[in-house]
């Protein structure tokens, strides 16, 4: 007769996750019972308050570590704290952008172009369900980098993915494109989850354990079937590489980035990368560290192809959101260099890069939301010509974010790329450094091409204009700009903070 053992949880260490989950549940309750008039303010206040309170809890536990916070399923350590903090900061900026409800349809279930949709748009109502969906996604993103076994990893993966599938289909305009993006993201995400589960099953067959510590012990002891281990690594990696948009698992990225509402694209592009790379760093730096020579060659090839593919294909793009999507693919390749480095410098550089890239990404997409005509957002690059003359403020900020993506000095992107390439060089991965520098040079071409188009081309009389941003969008853009420049000019405080805190417990 088996005896049920009550779980022992450390609520203090789990506080950031629990607070966000509680906020999400309260958001659902507001949707169910609050009047439509007070929902927008109530949901925004609740969401921002939840995220700020969660950041305060992350700061409180920053020097604590534990493998027993949730009976071995969660690892709280310095790297986990940093990843959670980055996700929460990016989420706050993303929520401020999402609060500009101009981007969202009112009735997502309505058939595009139908009378029902027209009436819902004319009603003046706002879509407030997006706030609890965002909090549920953030909760999954907080669990993903701290998961210490394969079951927790899968649960966190689904928790962060399912709300994003829904949010990608909520665009107010270009409804069919948005719904197509949501469907593609869902179907391909389901396939990647299946691969992840398949890999988890093989790793369990190899080690007899679903915990990262148990898998590591089997790797060190060499007690399992190596074929099972290699298949397990391969399929588990497919699930993770899909989330970060690495080649050849990138097919969803440009379509979803283009079709989803731009605030959702900003949040998804920035925060999901932090969470997914956080999980990937933990897995490869702990469970798979002693099998370095088994997975390094293939991961190196994937990183190189991802950098080159993202940089070359971005040149041919004529849509600003698709260009930024392929840019994000190239950045996934740069970040894989930090995973492959497998050293302390690689971990530090990856965390800094993820935060810096995430902030600049939110800022760049925030500017995209401001360029509109009578039908809505303008993403055709040709119609961005002369933007610097229409709105020097918006064009200058967008140019700053593009220069950060290119890795130009005095921006956070330069510090991030220099740090991650230095870590790769220290680990002996010279091929990745050479290809990374080459890819950065290629990427700089299409970033600077957009800057030239904005500032050195006469604007056409095509109805394109830059709207005056709302206060919340203005806060997002200015905060992203300040952080991007500050981290490029004075990176030492954050780098030192990361270096002192970033570690994985085993």
UniProtKB/TrEMBL annotation:
Pfam families xref list: Proton_antipo_M
GO CC, any one term: membrane
Membrane spanning residue stretches: 12-34, 41-59, 79-99, 182-207, 227-252, 264-285, 297-316, 323-345, 351-371, 392-411, 431-456, 477-505
Subcellular localization: Membrane
Keyword Thylakoid: no
UniProt membrane topology term: Multi-pass membrane protein
UniProt entry tagged with the keyword Magnesium: no
InterPro entries with a match to the protein in the record: NADH-Q_OxRdtase_suN/2 (IPR010096), ND/Mrp_TM (IPR001750)
GO biological process, one term: ATP synthesis coupled electron transport
NADH:quinone oxidoreductase/Mrp antiporter transmembrane domain residues: 147-442
Keyword line: Membrane, Transmembrane, Transmembrane helix
Recorded GO MF terms: NADH dehydrogenase (ubiquinone) activity
Name of the protein this chain belongs to: Unannotated protein
Organism: freshwater metagenome
Taxonomic lineage from the root: unclassified sequences, metagenomes, ecological metagenomes
